[in-house]
Structure formats: C-alpha cells, structure tokens
C-alpha cells in the first residue's frame, strides 16, 4: 500500500497545485485585471437605459445579437449556426428562403440583398451588420416610422464603428444600438 501512495503522491500533489494555479489564481487575476481595465466588456457590455419614469431597464448586450423582425426596425443577420457547406444544396435552400422573406418584408426594394442579411455568422450571434446591409433597410424603416431617410442614416452612422486602428477589420453597424436609438431610448 505504501508503494502505491509513494507513486501517486507526486500526481496528487501536481493535481492540487495545478488546480489552485489554473482554477483559482489565474482566473482570479484575469478577472481583477478585466474589471480594472475593461469593466464594461467584463460585465457583458449590457445596455442599460433610464426610462422616462426614472426606472432603469437592461435591453441586451452589444456583443450578442437580438432578433428583430418588425419592419420598423433594422434587422440583423440570421441567428443560429449550422454545419452546412457554404456551397451545399441545403445552404442554398436556406439562403433562397431568406431572400424570399426579405422580398416579402419589403416588396418595393428591388436592390440586391447584402450577403450578411441572408447568411448566419460563424458564431450565430453576431450583433453587427455591414453598413451596406443597414443602407439596404433605410427606406423601409423611414417609411414605417414616418421619418426621413436622412434621420435613419444619421442614427445608423452614429452607431457604426470603423476599422480597428484604421486598417483592421471592417466597419460594422450595431443592430441593437440602432434600434434603441430609433425608439429614442439611446
């Protein structure tokens, strides 16, 4: 029995030490640094709005997609992910269904539908769309809300982020922020 304990002792000691290091100390240090340097992101980037009656309400995260389908709102990418091939028949069928949905939502809009409005992102919860996808929806939103297209564009522009460091990534429009601004909550 003592031979087994002698053999297992280093393994158990290593397990305990690594559990404390990797399971307690490291996450604790990362959490403290995140809270100090990036508190908004570390807490989920939640949009909290003070309503007219003085109460505060959480509307969602700027990092996770919210599903909007009403015509008076800007509509984001389809949510959910699949393992479908981007060139497979099933994916083609899904894209066609989504194109038909967009055409039924706004039959007067004959422009080409931007790709990000008919394909899901890799994560399935992308909160942003391209400026082109937002522009595609401007006339419908303005008509549904009874406001000018310029007013809608101004809200979109205020909620569009540019490239990181001026060259990395693509400009993006945050769907939730635009819709809250359209409802005059932001």
UniProtKB/TrEMBL annotation:
Please provide, in alphabetical order, the Gene Ontology terms of the cellular component aspect for this entry.
plasma membrane
Which GO terms fall under molecular function for this chain's record? ATP binding; P-type potassium transmembrane transporter activity
> Which Pfam families does the UniProt record give?
KdpC
- Which InterPro entries does the annotation name? KdpC
**Which keywords label this protein?**
ATP-binding, Cell membrane, Ion transport, Membrane, Nucleotide-binding, Potassium, Potassium transport, Transmembrane, Transmembrane helix, Transport
Signal peptide range equals none
Which sequence ranges form a coiled-coil region, renumbered to this chain?
Answer: none
Say which family it is in: Belongs to the KdpC family.
**NCBIfam families given in the database record:** kdpC, PRK00315.1
Protein's recorded name: Potassium-transporting ATPase KdpC subunit
């Amino acid at each position: 029995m003592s031979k087994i304990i002698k053999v297992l002792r280093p393994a158990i000691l290593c397990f305990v030490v690594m559990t404390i290091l990797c399971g307690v100390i490291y996450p604790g240090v990362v959490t403290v640094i995140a809270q100090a340097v990036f508190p908004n992101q570390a807490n989920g980037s939640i949009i909290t709005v003070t309503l007219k009656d003085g109460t505060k309400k959480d509307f969602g995260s700027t990092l996770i997609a919210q599903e909007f389908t009403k015509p008076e709102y800007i509509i984001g990418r389809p949510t959910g992910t699949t393992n479908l091939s981007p060139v497979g028949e099933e994916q083609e069928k899904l894209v066609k269904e989504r194109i038909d949905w967009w055409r039924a939502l706004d039959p007067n809009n004959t422009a080409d539908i931007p790709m990000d409005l008919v394909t899901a992102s890799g994560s399935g919860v992308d909160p942003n769309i391209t400026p082109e996808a937002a522009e595609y929806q401007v006339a419908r939103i303005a008509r549904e809300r009874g406001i000018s297209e310029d007013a809608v564009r101004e809200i979109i522009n205020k909620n569009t982020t540019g490239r990181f460091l001026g060259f990395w990534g693509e400009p993006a429009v945050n769907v939730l922020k635009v819709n809250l601004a359209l409802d005059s909550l932001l």
